[in-house]
Design brief:
By secondary structure, the chain is an alpha+beta fold. It has 15 helices and 22 strands. The mean pLDDT is about 95.
Length: about 450
């Protein structure tokens, strides 16, 4: 096992990783920007080192600084968390060059699954269903028009290197396609340095269902069930739950095996997530694989009792998986609400500022992952996620009630948050019946 691990991240995920390391008897090194000088992760780590100014490009994304701090402090491994450098194959390669273990999958697996068109081809070859679309990236307007005619409108133009809704356009006609193609390419180039796009058939009213997987370096791989992440706005997840209320045991088994096929197709090890769209007829289609720990990983931890971050660390240290597929048992129902410093009444505008009062909910079955504390300054430099409230209960109805109660108890003053918006979701009759899909927020909620 490693003696010392550097966490190349900030916020609640850095705190989460530090806690996992402490339980394993591992010393931790935190890195921070000048804007995060007083952040919680810097206080909890055994050692904290400043790596640059507030701008992510000069701090949390600056590979030479992070590698240098790891070498200076004697860290044997680096955990990237999620976001920033978590899915950057070049960073993983630089870690290996420096003799430092990257806590994550191989650079090859990240590269294959990070390029959506390549990932699509790889899983198709493994027999995993994919959404009808182009064979790979489209090379021009005429090819895009031909593909769209073949699969039928509406279609999605998607950035090959994309994520988080960037480089994504919904197109309803040939007339719209030319402009959508160009704007998606420009946005993809600006966001990812890669303008390549591909086309997919738009699946109407789908659920977004993802399977959590774990694999070791010896080729053993298992799945830990699914999460329903359909409650989104602008393709950003807001609320996640496990298990998905719409899956039958037979469909769950079939999709779980498909997720394992997709992971084996790229020789995957570490924690990862295989994501699918599921239509109203129960047909499912692979859309992408996230080669990192997910924001919503606590939902799976609550229903399985398995610490995913510790498993990641053990796998990176060369240990085999400690459990088999039959050891994974899903108990009860879990739900996560992402609390952001945003104003739902003004199109979810970010709301940085100083937290003047902060009270966490508690009680049986409630967990809160956060790096907040009273007096903390939420800066405009980073993601607006400030806390994750996770609830567990024996069944879905009870977990909704327990989450609702926790949000009533939670207090954050000084900044505007999405707590009230989550209460609206939980109170919605369609949501309570489990009738959700990826455009649920637009169709079923009036923000108030």
């Amino acid at each position: 096992m490693f003696k010392r691990v550097l966490i190349a991240n900030r916020g609640e995920i850095a705190v989460r990783i530090i806690r996992a390391c402490k339980e394993l008897g591992i010393e931790t090194v935190a890195v921070y920007s000048e804007a995060d000088r007083g952040a919680l992760h810097t206080k909890l780590a055994d050692k904290a080192v400043c790596i640059g100014p507030p701008s992510p490009s000069r701090s949390y994304l600056h590979i030479p600084s992070i590698i240098a701090v790891a070498q200076m402090t004697g860290a044997e491994a680096i955990h990237p968390g999620y976001g920033f450098l978590a899915e950057n194959p070049y960073f993983a390669e630089m870690c290996a060059t420096a003799g430092i273990t990257f806590i994550g999958p191989s650079p090859r697996a990240m590269q294959l699954m990070g390029a959506k068109a390549q990932a699509r081809a790889a899983v198709m070859a493994a027999g995993v269903p994919v959404v009808p679309g182009s064979e790979g990236v489209v090379k021009g307007v005429e090819e895009a028009l031909a593909v769209a005619r073949e699969i039928g409108y509406p279609v999605l133009v998607k950035a090959s290197a994309g994520g988080g809704g960037r480089g994504l356009r919904l197109v309803h006609s040939a007339k719209e396609l030319r402009q959508a193609l160009q704007s998606a390419q420009r946005e993809a180039e600006a966001a990812f340095g890669d303008s390549q796009v591909y086309l997919e058939k738009y699946i109407e009213e789908p659920r977004h269902v993802e399977f959590q997987i774990l694999g070791d370096r010896e080729g053993n791989i298992i799945h830990l069930g699914e999460r329903d992440c359909s409650i989104q706005r602008r393709n950003q997840k807001l609320l996640e739950e496990a298990p998905c209320p719409a899956l039958t045991p037979e469909l769950r088994e079939e999709m779980g095996q498909a997720a394992l096929k997709a992971a084996r197709a790229v020789g995957y090890y570490s924690a990862g997530t295989v994501e699918f769209l599921v239509d109203k007829y129960g047909r499912y289609y692979f859309i992408e694989m996230n080669t990192r720990i997910q924001v919503e990983h606590p939902v799976t931890e609550m229903v399985t009792g398995i610490d995913l971050v510790q498993e990641q660390i053990k796998i990176a240290a060369g240990m085999p998986l400690s459990l088999n597929q039959e050891d994974v048992v899903i108990r009860g129902h879990a739900m996560e609400c992402r609390i952001n410093a945003e104003d739902p009444k003004h199109d979810f505008r970010p709301c940085p500022g100083k937290v003047t009062r902060f009270h966490l909910p508690g009680g049986f079955g409630i967990r809160v992952d956060t790096a907040l504390y009273n007096g903390m300054e939420i800066t405009p430099h980073y993601d607006s996620l400030i806390a994750k409230v996770i609830a567990w209960a024996p069944d879905r109805e009870m977990v909704i009630n327990r989450m609702r109660s926790a949000l009533e108890e939670m207090e954050i003053e000084g900044v505007t948050t999405t707590i009230s918006f989550h209460k609206q979701i939980l109170d919605n009759a369609f949501f309570r019946r489990g009738e959700v899909y990826t455009n649920f927020v637009q169709r079923r909620l009036q923000v108030s």
